[in-house]
Amino acid sequence: MWGGTCTEDSAWASAPAAGKWHLPVYQDFHAFDLSGATRVLEWIGDKGILVAGYESLKKNEILHLILPLRLSVKENQGLFPERDFKVCHGGFSDRSVFDLKYVPDTRLLVTSGLPGCYLQVWQVAEDSDVIKAVSTIDVCEEGCLWPRVAIFSSAAPGVLHGARLSSLKVVDLESQKTTYSSGVSDDELLSSLQVLDTDTFAFCCTSGRLGLVDTRQKWTPSENLRPGSGSAGGRWCAEAGGRGPGPSIASLGSDGQLCLLDPRDLCQPVSLVQCPVSMPSPDPELLRVTWAPGLDNCLAISGFDGTVQVYDVTSWGGMGRQVEPLFTHKGHIFLDGNGMDTAPLVTTHTWHPCKPRTLLSAASDASLHVWDWVDLHAAR
Amino acid sequence: MPEIRVTPLGAGQDVGRSCILVSIAGKNVMLDCGMHMGFSDDRRFPDFSYITRSGRLTDFLDCVIISHFHLDHCGALPYFSEMVGYDGPIYMTQPTQAICPILLEDYRKIAVDKKGEANFFTSQMIKDCMKKVVAVHLHQTVQVDDELEIKAYYAGHVLGAAMFQIKVGSESVVYTGDYNMTPDRHLGAAWIDKCRPNLLITESTYATTIRDSKRCRERDFLKKVHETVERGGKLWARWPGGAARGSSRAGLPPPLQVLIPVFALGRAQELCILLETFWERMDLKAPIYFSTGLTEKANHYYKLFIPWTNQKIRKTFVQRNMFEFKHIKAFDRAFADSPGPMVVFATPGMLHAGQSLQIFRKWAGNEKNMVIMPGYCVQGTVGHKILSGQRKLEMEGRQVLEVKMQVEYMSFSAHADAKGIMQLVGQAEPENVLLVHGEAKKMEFLKQKIEQEFRVSCYMPANGETVTLPTSPSIPVGISLGLLKREMAQGLLPDAKKPRLLHGTLIMKDSNFRLVSSEQALKELGLAEHQLRFTCRVHLHDTRKEQETAVRVYSHLKSVLKDHCVQHLPDGSVTVESILIQAAAHSEDPGTKVLLVSWTYQDEELGSYLTSLLKKGLPQAS
């Protein structure tokens, strides 16, 4: 009921406000409850997303959801009352799904989970609403590790996968032939893989070591210095892709350190800052840092608690400084209706490909939010 | 073959017209009788020719059940009962009975007065139709006839909405109508007990959606209100379902609303409380107004239907008058001309006449103003036109009204989504699930989900297609005490875990089943009993006396036939159950004994077995 505590108010009013009028901090805010929590949010086009469950003892659902009409139409938004997601396709996975990638220009999906000795390939049906398992790709991994997955999209799509540097491979989706392999014995664990263009990909190890690889050559990645020199271990992940003139690679550590790098010179980080997180991440596998596709020098991080923080990295420079987020999404915390003792943890987030300030975030309580934040600094 | 048959009526795959025919154990029930709001011709009515083929509707149908007052569930009822012809009982809950005729009359007026339709049901037809209604209470078992009974369950969704269980003997069907599994501000959530029906019928229109939370919907509404009044505009929310009578009748004062008080009460009250709290918290000063005349009628209806609302509402009502708000006041016509920001709740809901239309005409030209439509508007009304994007409207006297004010369409209706359907299936535990109003191809995943999670079969018929479900009804049979006693006296006490074969005669008379002993049956039917008895001779080589042979036979059979009652009678004969074995000396050969094995037709199997067993000979005496 409305007569709640002031944390409920902050859903739509910034706190504290000096004046009588509270500014709304969201342009749009939609909150949904999935039947099972997801760790993946993968776009199909700009109107559909894929989510998948990760429970270990039951069948998990893989769902293809269409965004509410209200969020998709560009004009006359007011005339569209529909605020609900539509389940367009669905399928069942016996395994938990920790990674899911859509193969562009096809109707195929690739998922990875535990046990990690194979990847599952799925097909989104055309004439019905079913997502069906069609084939598997064997990978040489220990059963307890799950390989990260990224897709080289082309006429003959390739699946990049690996749990360790030593097992990093690219496999042709159709023929299942290996087209590239790292060929190294270095068994460092991987935390993220990302395809950058038709020939290059980026990897990040849990130690923070990251590199850019050109698949046209034998394994000679351009790499960074291990961040052990500045920070104290922890677990890292990374993402490339910043827009705008600044550094375009961001690396996030489980203690809240954020490192910005220029791909042309990975050995010289542009800046290393400390994000205000209350504790080290309780589950560093859920760490996520993403660049905004529609805003310059803007990124978001999650995986520490029930929030998603958005930062403007323009004019960040130097080492060790403290930074403040441009915006913090707290919806998963105060909309948690379960009354559980443990607050939910954000499992993943993603930016809308076209709407610059719209994000989607998912949490461990199976909530899924779509939110469009107001840049209060710009509004003032 | 006992079966349940379900046929959704209506033409085409369109949603929006609920009408389902169910045949259960020889009874025929029609569930809902809705109108499709999108059509203006006969396509808006269900296709009743499917049943009229079988003859008169009144003879064919045992009853009609209406789940709630929305027109897509009851809109075709007067047409069906008065123009097609049905005189049997129509069951619905009390709030539905009160509100239905108001909505039907309102709709009739729009269709006939505004759209000039002919061949539409008349006001008198609505009255005549409602005379056939029998109101039901929640959880009350209603006997439609000796065999057919129905029971209503709370469905949420709108005031008075119910889910119905239809039961004949041990077979039952549950129809959900529209329902909501999450409570809102004025209604509780749907609930049903573990009634385990053979079949659960539910709508699938929203089955493939995942609903946005109530808080976010409310937030959106409040945000729009706030932004508009902050900009200095006037905001105007209209209420669906208002019936304005007689605004065109000369000499009469402008009508006090005859707004669907309860319906308006539900949503209107919900949003009023929302605005009141928001205004208080944000310390807003813009005035909020509410249509005059609404309050008395609203309170009257409200008192009637309190059990249908949720806890919070009941508590509030006890504490104060429903419409005593700090920030919300009664509206006066003159206020429409005042400058400055304000919020007005007005009626009727679809902008087709009366106060709401008056205000609309005054405010439409200012782009700072906003109108919020909280529900569906029927084709032909101004409400429908502006929601379709029209910005130039032709009013009476060829006047053109340019609409510059912002138009917002918001949906506050409460339906169960995919999650809600799973919850309800989990509560009721049906053997089968049937989804109507969905395209089978688009629902394959949901079907699998239901089938896997609950291990039931899931059906999705198209309109006009019949689904037949085989059932295995349990038929209760009364067993005569004498027969029972006799069986128990037969010897060993029955082992509770082992099934025991007994012989009797089943008499079926007047839907009554009795199991009696054969003698009693013969007596009742006045017949003489004939007994078939088989006798077989088995020759055994045994030089001893026949009495000793009999003993040997007894010992042997006793050790072999541990499960049967083997007795050695004083006269020397051996019995196995009812089979008699007597040993006699061979007339010519003293070394041979003749065993006479005699059994009745009932014990044929055992008798044959015994004979072959004895033919194998007896074990050597130890």
From TrEMBL, chain A:
<dbReference type="InterPro" id="IPR042795">
    <property type="entry name" value="Wdr73"/>
</dbReference>
<dbReference type="InterPro" id="IPR001680">
    <property type="entry name" value="WD40_rpt"/>
</dbReference>
<dbReference type="InterPro" id="IPR015943">
    <property type="entry name" value="WD40/YVTN_repeat-like_dom_sf"/>
</dbReference>
<dbReference type="InterPro" id="IPR036322">
    <property type="entry name" value="WD40_repeat_dom_sf"/>
</dbReference>
<protein>
    <submittedName>
        <fullName>WD repeat domain 73</fullName>
    </submittedName>
</protein>
<dbReference type="GO" id="GO:0031122">
    <property type="term" value="P:cytoplasmic microtubule organization"/>
</dbReference>
<dbReference type="GO" id="GO:0000922">
    <property type="term" value="C:spindle pole"/>
</dbReference>
<dbReference type="GO" id="GO:0032154">
    <property type="term" value="C:cleavage furrow"/>
</dbReference>
<dbReference type="GO" id="GO:0030674">
    <property type="term" value="F:protein-macromolecule adaptor activity"/>
</dbReference>
<dbReference type="GO" id="GO:0006997">
    <property type="term" value="P:nucleus organization"/>
</dbReference>
<dbReference type="GO" id="GO:0005829">
    <property type="term" value="C:cytosol"/>
</dbReference>
Automatic annotation (TrEMBL), chain B:
<feature type="domain" description="Beta-Casp">
    <location>
        <begin position="268"/>
        <end position="386"/>
    </location>
</feature>
<keyword id="KW-0378">Hydrolase</keyword>
<dbReference type="GO" id="GO:0005654">
    <property type="term" value="C:nucleoplasm"/>
</dbReference>
<keyword id="KW-0539">Nucleus</keyword>
<dbReference type="Pfam" id="PF21386">
    <property type="entry name" value="IntS11_C"/>
</dbReference>
<dbReference type="GO" id="GO:0006368">
    <property type="term" value="P:transcription elongation by RNA polymerase II"/>
</dbReference>
<comment type="subunit">
    <text>Component of the Integrator complex, composed of core subunits INTS1, INTS2, INTS3, INTS4, INTS5, INTS6, INTS7, INTS8, INTS9/RC74, INTS10, INTS11/CPSF3L, INTS12, INTS13, INTS14 and INTS15. The core complex associates with protein phosphatase 2A subunits PPP2CA and PPP2R1A, to form the Integrator-PP2A (INTAC) complex. INTS11 is part of the RNA endonuclease subcomplex, composed of INTS4, INTS9, INTS11 and inositol hexakisphosphate (InsP6). Interacts with WDR73; interaction is required for the assembly of the RNA endonuclease subcomplex in the cytoplasm.</text>
</comment>
<dbReference type="GO" id="GO:0046872">
    <property type="term" value="F:metal ion binding"/>
</dbReference>
<dbReference type="GO" id="GO:0016787">
    <property type="term" value="F:hydrolase activity"/>
</dbReference>
<dbReference type="InterPro" id="IPR001279">
    <property type="entry name" value="Metallo-B-lactamas"/>
</dbReference>
<dbReference type="InterPro" id="IPR011108">
    <property type="entry name" value="RMMBL"/>
</dbReference>
<keyword id="KW-0862">Zinc</keyword>
<keyword id="KW-0479">Metal-binding</keyword>
<dbReference type="InterPro" id="IPR041897">
    <property type="entry name" value="INTS11-like_MBL-fold"/>
</dbReference>
<dbReference type="GO" id="GO:0160232">
    <property type="term" value="C:INTAC complex"/>
</dbReference>
<comment type="similarity">
    <text>Belongs to the metallo-beta-lactamase superfamily. RNA-metabolizing metallo-beta-lactamase-like family. INTS11 subfamily.</text>
</comment>
<dbReference type="InterPro" id="IPR050698">
    <property type="entry name" value="MBL"/>
</dbReference>
<dbReference type="InterPro" id="IPR036866">
    <property type="entry name" value="RibonucZ/Hydroxyglut_hydro"/>
</dbReference>
<dbReference type="GO" id="GO:0005829">
    <property type="term" value="C:cytosol"/>
</dbReference>
<dbReference type="Pfam" id="PF10996">
    <property type="entry name" value="Beta-Casp"/>
</dbReference>
<dbReference type="Pfam" id="PF07521">
    <property type="entry name" value="RMMBL"/>
</dbReference>
<dbReference type="Pfam" id="PF16661">
    <property type="entry name" value="Lactamase_B_6"/>
</dbReference>
